[in-house]
Design a protein that fits this description.
Elements: E1 3-7, H1 11-23, E2 27-31, H2 34-43, E3 48-51, H3 60-69, E4 76-81, H4 87-94, E5 99-102, H5 108-120
Parallel strand pairs: 1-2, 1-3, 3-4, 4-5
Helix pairs in contact: 2-3
């Protein structure tokens, strides 16, 4: 079973995304910030990380910067954000994210389609 790390600080979104992904037969782990995500990455080899950028404690950019230094290298990282164009998105892509998806435009079916496309071709 493919392992996905969902990093999202908003409780309602995190639980909704977790349920959607679990319905697609993925093993889903969740973190509320980048620091929790780094700790999970040290324990589990993830196939994919779905990463919010704007979070308390440690944001998505800091997670991306720190994971490189700590050799925490999941196969693929997709940014889930409501930032449609920004320097943060550009920075995230330069730090190894493979794709960015606008949360406001994401349906449950689209989430599963994107995740399936990324983890099944890996």
């Amino acid at each position: 079973m493919r392992k996905i790390l969902l990093v999202e600080d908003e409780d309602l979104l995190r639980e909704a995304y977790r349920a959607i992904l679990a319905s697609g037969s993925y093993e889903v782990y969740a973190a509320t910030n980048g620091r929790e995500a780094l700790e999970l990455c040290k324990q589990v080899a993830f196939d994919l990380v779905l990463l919010d950028l704007m979070m308390p404690v440690m944001d998505g950019i800091s997670f991306l910067e720190r994971r490189l230094g700590e050799a925490c290298l999941p196969a693929k990282i997709i940014i889930l954000s409501n930032l449609s164009s920004s320097t943060e998105l550009a920075r995230a892509m330069s730090l190894g994210a493979c794709k960015s998806i606008l949360k406001a435009e994401l349906s449950p079916r689209q989430l599963l389609t994107v995740v399936h496309g990324e983890v099944e071709v890996a």
